[in-house]
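Reopening this ticket.

The earlier resolution said the output was attached, but the attachment link was broken on my side. Pasting everything inline this time so it's all in one place.
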Amino acid sequence: MWKGRIDVLGNRTLATDVNASEFYLWSNTRPGVNWSISPAGLSSNGYDGHIFWDAETWMYPSLLAQHPDLAAGMNNYRFQRLGAARQHATATGYQGARFPWESALDGTEQIPPPPSINSEGLYEMHITADIALAQWQYYLVTGNRSWLRRRGWPVLSGAATFWASKATRGADGRYHINQVTGPDEENPDVNDEVYTLVAAKTTLQDAVRAAHAIGRSAPRSWSTIARRLAIHTSRVQGVRIYKEFSGYRSQMVKQADVTMLQYPWLYPMSHRVAQNDLNFYVPRSDPGGPSMDDAVSSIDTSALGSPGCASFVYTERSYQPFIRDVFHQFSETRYGGAFTFMTGIGGFLQEFQYGYSGLRWGSSGVSLAPSLTKQLAGVTLHNLRSRGRVFTVSVRRRVSSVTLISGRALRVMTPAGTRTVRRGHALRLRTARPDLKRTSDLVRCQRTQASSSEVGAVPLAGVDGSPATDWQPVKLPAVFTTRVTGGTRRISRATVRWGHLWPLVTAPNVPPAPGPVKTVRASDYTVQVSTNGQTWRTVAQVSGVTQRSVDRLRFHSVRARWVRLVLTQGSQPPIPPSTQDQNPPPTTPMLEELTITR
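Inline output:
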């Protein structure tokens, strides 16, 4: 099995965590077992061993890439319970197949009562689309039409029929999906939840494609509904984004939801809107939420080529706060929860398989768009599989390569065009380097250090080019230091952006309030420079500022090789625990981004 593994170069700790995660995920299944994996796998009674969307969305894609024989059992588990899914649809007033939120032995809904607390079984219907996507992905990877005809098509067509019956046409001529909950379970029972809309649209489209692949006809209504679903962008607080649902008020969200439209759903949108979604929703993600939020952000950021090194910062955020004990195991949240958390492991591994490589499955081949920042020396994906072929992708800082190990020639779609890989002739691809994109910022992605850091709130986040990530010290006073690119340079301006904190959840099934939003900043600090790293000169000082989000500082031009912020006083008192979160986030200053210019 280890022939199909992930190697991470240039960071031994990260490499060890990746290999440990592979070990734990693989240990929870084996070929020939028609069963799926629960959020805690075989390691504990977490979530009663039930099967959720976690299996198809988070664990399955990691297995599919290098061990499709293991992924097959997860699909078989759903196929064998298709009858129960059909009965569930009928019993709840719909057609087709509706899979339960929590599934176990017989495929009926197993969510524990009462629904006033656990309402997911009533509203979190997107799981049916998540299952359908996994079925279609298996066909794309294996190309097995016989399997698609006998097993994939019944699930896909049942899911499409369900969504066609769930969608209702409004007076505006668009189709709407009401009374649903998306992955953001802190905002339940809403209308036109955009993750659910996009997931339903994709299910309908994939079902049509599946019908064509096996020579079947699909109802015209599937394409009509998919085309007219009420998916659209909105301008919120001055930026164009996809609103999470109708009536969304910019409040905190539990985890990745809208940001998942980019991956895994591959929903077409403009580069600007995609970046806006990340910048808008990531800071609003619950600090007590699961790790998969940052896994998706890392994959999205790599795909977008966002200037800077935020893809790597998101990777650090996705595992550092969640790894427990000397055995490198994942917990569900930074405060505890299910253990060992296979869901988090699956999301973490996808960052390397689908993020840094840009790997995507297609009906006519695979797509690759390698991207890396200088914080990693490389990522190697051994023994990837596609329609009878076995190949390896090696992502390096300058040039990446694709090597065909066995099978017929492999068609590869790349940013430079379509290429063909044959045995004995490796394909070489230019590696995108978003950290090297031109900028006037003299400290972006430079080496940083800090006197202390909250786990996951790493110093690099303060200069990674992203307004959505933060460095946060454990205590004050604190010192944040960064180098200036190109050695000693003249500088005269500093822009300091601070983070924010949204109100937390207060009770089950009660959406968080949209405000007041608190600026979590240093009220008192100095900006200092040095040419030798030993003697420091103060060039700017801020005192008594508690509310402003951005400080734009100008000073006489000075020569500097290092710049540092010395934080002495914060602006926020500690937050008392809520009824839902007994571990409130720390309120030391959150440095969103430091920018230094000439």
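Reporter confirms the inline version is readable. The chain has a mean pLDDT of 95. Residues 145-166 form the longest helix (22 residues).
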